[in-house]
Structures are given as C-alpha cells and as structure tokens.
Amino acid sequence: MLKKDFQNKVCIITGAARGIGEAIARLFHQRGAKLALIDMDKDGLKKLSEELSGSKIYIGDLTQQEFVDTAIAQITKDLGPVSVLVNNAGITKDNLIGNITNQDWDRVMEVNLKAPFMLCRAVFPTMKEHKYGKIVNLISASWLGNIGQGNYSASKAGLVGLTRTMAQEFAKFNVNVNGVSPGLVDTPMIKSIPDNVKEKLINARPLKRIGKPEEIAEAVAFLASDRAAYITGQILHVDGGKSVGA
Ligand SMILES: NC(=O)c1ccc[n+]([C@@H]2O[C@H](COP(=O)([O-])OP(=O)(O)OC[C@H]3O[C@@H](n4cnc5c(N)ncnc54)[C@H](O)[C@@H]3O)[C@@H](O)[C@H]2O)c1
C-alpha cells in the first residue's frame, strides 16, 4: 500500500541535491513517484539522479521567475501534469538583527519564501484543472522565533502564513497544502554550528538527539499522500519534541 503512494504521480522536489531533499527524493522513488528533481547544485543532482531510475533533473536558481516557468513547462513536457510539489530548498544567513545586511535579508526571503510562492503559483493551474494536488512546504522550528535567525525565522513564519492561506484558497479544487517543521536535522545546513552550541540544542529537546533526514522525509511523504487527504493547512512539527512543553 505504502509502496504505491506515488505510483505514476509526477512529484517535484526542490533542493533535492543533498540533505532533507535527497532523503525525500529517495523515499518518493521507493514509493513509485515520477520524480522531477530541482536544485542549483548540478553535480549533486546528477549523482542522485543516476541512482534513481527514471528521475529527471532541472538545474537552476529557483528565485528566478524565468527558471521557474521554464522548469515547470519542461517537467510537464517530460513527465506529465504535476501532482505533488515539495518546496524543500532553503538557506540560512544567520546573524543578530543589527548585523543582518539588506542583501542577506533579501536573499533568505527570496529563496525561502518567494521561490515557494512562485512555484505554487506556477503548478496550481494544472492542479486545479485536474482537481488534484498536494503541496508540502518545509518550514523550520525557527518560525517560532530564534536568536540569530531573524531573517530565516521571518521567512519561515511567512511560509506558514502562505501555507495556511493557500490551503483555504485551493481546498475547493482538491489541493491540499501543508507544512513540515523540522527541528535540528543532520544535513550540511547545520555543519557550521559549533559543537558546544549543538550540544545545548540537543539537550533542549525531549528526545535528546539530532533528527535524521529520513525522519523528515517520512512526514513529508505522509502529507503528500492520499492517506492525508483530510488534512490541510497544518504544520507538522518533526523536532524531537522541542516545540512542546512550557
Ligand atoms: N537541517 C536542519 O536542521 C533543518 C531544520 C529545519 C528546517 N530545515 C529546512 O529544511 C529544508 C532542507 O534543509 P537541508 O538541511 O536539507 O538544507 P541543505 O543546505 O543541506 O540543502 C538545501 C538544498 O537546497 C538547494 N538550494 C538552495 N537555494 C537554492 C536555490 N535558490 N535554487 C535551487 N536550489 C537551491 C541547495 O543547493 C541544497 O542542495 C530547508 O528549507 C531548511 O530550511 C532544515
């Protein structure tokens, strides 16, 4: 049953070249998806795609409207109408508020918030036409606020607002929109966090460990499947329990 979740469904995964996106791509592949993998990391994407038979890759910067339009048109031509969109690509440019440059603010907003918006806007007409669609956006526990991540936190909180709004606007066309909010996950994104800070972060969560990309992928796969057909506008926290408690 699980294996067939994405059989013959065209599924787009952004930021698929490594980390959480790669884990999502591997899991969706196991479950039969016709995969469209997008990233700006050409080498990482090519390597993954060689392993995942039948997957297609689209290389470019998702903040560029022209690339988004070209990629969606090409995916539709190569694989067929899009059923599932996972907005996973994201970046951090951490600093205390006083030290965040306008440039770093803009880039984080463009990658984490504007690109998902442009992608959703681009795939929605097809989903509407076919009366079927699943969109899952990768949020972050930081959307609740986090020292040193003013730009990142604001971008992810914005993405929560967008997720909840799209859920309401798209529901009548049988398009579900949800978010998965990971805590600390073992990917290249967190490599720059010093060990002593990581230790503190680990201790702050009830499960006392860092999450694995595969554990995030499971939550994304559930929300992107028909098993979650009656769930929309929700944010599922996959964070070792960090977001609960007083
Ligand atoms: N790792 C964590 O602890 C953690 C925690 C919470 C949320 N997240 C979120 O999960 C998602 C994936 O995180 P990750 O840890 O796997 O990150 P990562 O840095 O390991 O991978 C991100 C991928 O996105 C791609 N990417 C970035 N900007 C792009 C752009 N403009 N166009 C195309 N591709 C682009 C990168 O090339 C990279 O392959 C992100 O949205 C992130 O904010 C991660």
Architecture overview:
With 246 residues, the chain is an alpha/beta fold. The chain has one domain: NAD(P)-binding Rossmann-like Domain (Rossmann fold, 3-Layer(aba) Sandwich). Helix content is 43%, strand content 16%. The protein has 7 helices and 7 strands; from the N terminus they run βαβαβαβαβαβααβ. A 7-stranded parallel sheet has the order 3-2-1-4-5-6-7, sandwiched between helices. α4 links the parallel β4 and β5. α1 crosses α7. The chain is globular and about 45 Å long. Bound molecules: nicotinamide-adenine-dinucleotide. The site of nicotinamide-adenine-dinucleotide has 27 residues, from α1.
Question: What characteristics describe this protein?
Answer:
single chain, alpha/beta, Rossmann fold, seven-stranded parallel beta sheet, binds nicotinamide-adenine-dinucleotide
Helix content, binned percent = 40-55%
Number of separate domains: 1
Shape: globular
In CATH, the architecture is 3-Layer(aba) Sandwich
The CATH C-level class name: Alpha Beta
What is the residue-mean pLDDT, rounded to a whole number?
A: 96
Low-confidence runs of at least 5 consecutive residues: none
The assembly state of the depicted protein chains is single chain
Instruction: Record the strand order, biggest sheet.
Output: 3-2-1-4-5-6-7
| SS field, number of helical segments | 7
End-to-end distance, in Å? 39 Å
CATH homologous superfamily classification: NAD(P)-binding Rossmann-like Domain
Query: How would you characterize the largest beta sheet?
Result: 7 strands, parallel
How do the helices and strands follow one another from N- to C-terminus?
Answer: EHEHEHEHEHEHHE
